[in-house]
Amino acid sequence: MIPTVVYDANVLYPSTLRDVLIRVGIEHLVVPRWTDKILDETFRNLAANRPDLSVERLTRTRALMNAAIPDVLVTGYQQHLDIVTLPDPGDHHVVAASLHASASTIVTKNLRDFPAHALTPHGLTAMHPDAFLTDLTTRHPDTLARIVRQIAHAWRANPSTDTVLDSLAVETPETAARLHEALRTV
């Protein structure tokens, strides 16, 4: 069975990481899920920190994300909001969406905000994107190598796998290192 995962806003913010995470869903390695609230946070931060990105471009990116994976948006999760106590109450919606979607994993860079003692009773774990993608790379090296090649091909300015991996290494250095190796052997 393919595991269902919820991507937190902070892993959807970096463009290369976001692209890889969406493509592992397209390749059916996982069933990714997010909510409008997660996307609101992602795109609010992108708009604030990247004034070079137009509203139209951000709107288009969001629409393409939602169209890339069938049924990606989790709705109706509000009934689960009060089930878990977390250090940051602003993260309750991520756990609520995970429970509603029957996810097993939350992929986030903020592991301290999703402590095991709060998640384990609900059958959830939180994983850093580097650990998450390293695991997928170990189990599916050819697929992840193909994803990197696809991304490189899509980049018009500098279409090389090294450029993609250098960008990915900012957020997921272990994954990028393993993918360098996988691309050498493929």
Descriptive account of the structure:
- With 186 residues, the protein is of the alpha/beta class.
- The chain folds into 2 domains: 4-127, 3-Layer(aba) Sandwich (Rossmann fold); 134-185, no CATH class.
- 56% of the residues lie in helices and 7% in strands.
- The protein has 10 helices and 4 strands; from the N terminus they run βααβαααβαβαααα.
- The chain has helices at 9-12, 15-26, 36-49, 55-68, 92-100, 116-119, 129-139, 141-154, 161-169, 173-185; strands at 4-7, 31-33, 105-107, 125-127.
- Strands 2-1-3-4 form a 4-stranded parallel beta sheet, sandwiched between helices.
- α3 (36-49) runs antiparallel to α4 and α7 packs across α8 (141-154).
- The radius of gyration is 16 Å and the shape is globular.
- The two termini are 27 Å apart.
- The mean pLDDT is 95.
